[in-house]
Specification:
It is a single chain. The protein is α+β, with helices and mostly antiparallel strands and about 550 residues long. The protein folds into three domains: about 180 residues, FAD/NAD(P)-binding domain (3-Layer(bba) Sandwich), CATH 3.50.50.60; about 160 residues, 2-Layer Sandwich (D-Amino Acid Oxidase, Chain A, domain 2), CATH 3.30.9.10; about 130 residues, Alpha-glycerophosphate oxidase, cap domain (Helicase, Ruva Protein, domain 3, Orthogonal Bundle). The protein contains 16 helices and 18 strands. A hairpin with an 8-residue loop joins strand 8 and strand 9. The termini are far apart.
């Protein structure tokens, strides 16, 4: 394994300097889109020695990359569509991601109950899990087990036992998707890439000539316009792909089939599952998940065709009803109601349309387009395979740069063996948690702070604690008893280019889901911690609180 990139400042001053750099220099590759795929492309290209720029119209990971089911998995359910290659690739990538970001991605036990009436029977379940293990090979992170139905009450007390025919367990991974994406962005920047958020591409330069030479963009915060010159451009905008391709030719976006997936978020005490659970909804047979995730439990997901604006994606009342009914049939003893739901979230899958197939049967394979000249567009895929997708795209960019511009790569692709910023290199995550716990308790932070900080920041937890050492008031909690501190709000601004209160509450943390987060004092504490380095005055603080409150209400609107 190579060494992870160094920790760097990535705040307001760096954003201003990067905007100037975007306007002044010529880049080998311009990446449009700051989701996980764009982040991975920028990092891969920077590691190969290219001059890389990345622009994102909102905040990093603000789209699909923060609205997933939080899984790093091979896709057991894809076996029913005989997508063996996709599953094999995803299982290989699962192992790579656990290795390169062990603090953010962890192995997880999944239970798979089979009930009378499910389309999957006990024999098919055993066969599917056996194939899953075979495809994982030496990359397996844990072996499947056949469990006794009679032990179901002990294994998962809330699970419905009536009609239960079989029970098995297997391993996959889960992650904090938004934090993983920002770690890749910071890794790319530490390797030499120039990245700026809230910078919207308004036109592709050279579109009239059939050869793209960069882009015109607008800084959404100041309104200033800039021209970015680049030999090649990568369109990594997911469900916004059509908007970028439409700058070249109007009909190029018709191959996309966006599909909406919505989730319910419960506080962990209200839905205290011990394991992640994959199950077939007794409502319609769709495969769904219940996932313990920090202080919360997630239930999802739906698969609904979507033709609206990708900037306005929220769960619908019908989806809430469907998800709630599905989980209540699985766990009737929980007696969940709409009032028990903390929030919802929804994202769009940028699937490639396949004739005659619905969204559920559409493959999660990705496609790379090379039209017009020097514009590379990648669509499809899934979070787990983002690194492989980036490698394949940059592999296509390399010969173009060499033959047309005389620019060669210094290295082959090394992302398979390069940890992200914050990854512990010489110690286990458990040892890092213990170390963080000792240092946090010495500063008067809650006992759970060690796990919280180490799992969110890895070795970067030390930078958060240094802020508290310099100013003990930053150790004050934002939403007690959760261990988020004011120092994390300051760190998010100075080290992660966070620009708004909403982005901090929804992407850098998950305070938007926490009980009591509707309390204006929680948002105010965070906004006031961010105000200094961002130059906010009192009216701006009030405006940020108002905007965040609006987003929280929209995520709860479907609850009635």
């Amino acid at each position: 394994m190579r060494s992870p990139p160094p920790s760097i400042r990535f705040g307001p001053a760096e954003r201003r300097a990067n905007l100037e750099k975007l306007a002044a220099e010529t880049f080998d590759l311009l990446v449009i889109g700051g989701g996980v795929t764009g982040a991975a492309v920028a990092w891969d290209a920077a590691l190969r020695g290219f001059r890389v720029a990345l622009v994102e119209k909102d905040d990093y990971a603000s789209g699909t990359s923060s609205r997933s089911s939080k899984l790093i998995h091979g896709g057991l359910r894809y076996l029913e569509h005989f997508d063996f290659r996709l599953v094999f690739e995803a299982l290989r990538e699962r192992q790579t991601l656990i290795k390169t970001a062990p603090h953010l991605i962890e192995p997880e036990v999944f239970l798979f109950p089979i009930y009378k009436g499910n389309r999957t029977g006990p024999l098919l379940l055993r066969l599917g899990l056996a194939v899953y293990d075979v495809l994982a090979g030496f990359r397996s992170i844990g072996r499947r087990k056949r469990l006794k139905v009679s032990d179901a009450a002990e294994i998962e007390p809330l699970l419905d036992r009536s009609g239960l025919r079989a029970l098995a367990s297997y391993y996959d991974g889960k992650t904090n998707d938004a934090r993983h994406t920002i770690s890749i962005i910071r890794s790319a920047v530490a390797t030499g890439a120039t990245a700026v958020n809230y910078t919207r591409v308004t036109a592709l330069s050279g579109a009239d000539s059939g050869r793209i030479t960069g882009a015109r963009a607008r800084d959404e915060l100041s309104g200033s316009e800039l021209e970015i010159r680049a030999h090649t451009t990568a369109n990594c905008t997911g469900v916004w792909t059509g908007a970028i391709l439409g700058m070249v030719e109007e009909g190029l976006s018709g191959f996309l089939r966006p599909s909406k997936g919505s989730h319910l978020v419960f506080e962990r005490e209200r839905l205290p599952v011990r394991n992640s659970i994959i199950f077939e909804s007794s409502v319609d047979g769709r495969v769904m998940f219940v996932i313990p995730w920090g202080w919360f439990t997630l239930v999802g997901t739906t698969e609904v065709p979507f033709d609206g604006s990708p900037d306005e994606v929220y769960a619908s009342p019908d989806e809430v009803t469907y998800l709630l009914e599905s989980v209540n049939r699985l766990m009737p003893a929980a007696e969940l109601g709409g009032a028990d739901i903390s929030a919802t979230y929804a994202g769009l899958r940028p699937l490639v349309a396949e004739e005659g197939k619905g969204a559920g049967a559409t493959s999660r394979e990705h496609t790379i387009l090379d039209v017009p000249d020097n514009l590379f567009t990648i669509v499809g895929g899934k979070y787990t395979t983002h690194r492989l997708m980036a490698e394949e795209l940059v592999d296509k960019v390399v010969p173009r740069l060499r033959h047309q511009f005389g620019v060669g790569a210094r290295n082959a692709c090394v992302t398979r063996d390069t940890p992200v910023v914050g990854a512990p290199r010489h110690k286990r995550v458990s040892a890092l948690v213990a170390e963080a716990g000792d240092r946090a308790r010495a500063l008067g932070l809650p006992d759970e702070s060690g796990l919280h900080l180490a799992r969110r920041y890895g070795t970067e937890y030390r930078a958060v604690l240094r802020l508290i050492e310099d100013d003990p008031e930053l150790g004050a909690l934002l939403a007690p008893p959760l261990p988020y501190s004011r120092a994390e709000a300051l760190y998010a601004v100075e080290m992660e280019m966070t620009q708004t209160l909403t982005d901090f509450m929804t992407l850098r943390t998950h305070l938007i889901y926490a009980g009591g987060s509707e309390n204006p004092a929680v948002a105010r504490r965070a906004a006031e911690a961010m105000a200094g380095p961002l130059g906010w005055d009192s009216p701006r603080v009030e405006r940020e609180i108002e905007l965040y409150t609006g987003e929280r209400e929209r995520r709860r609107a479907a609850l009635g």
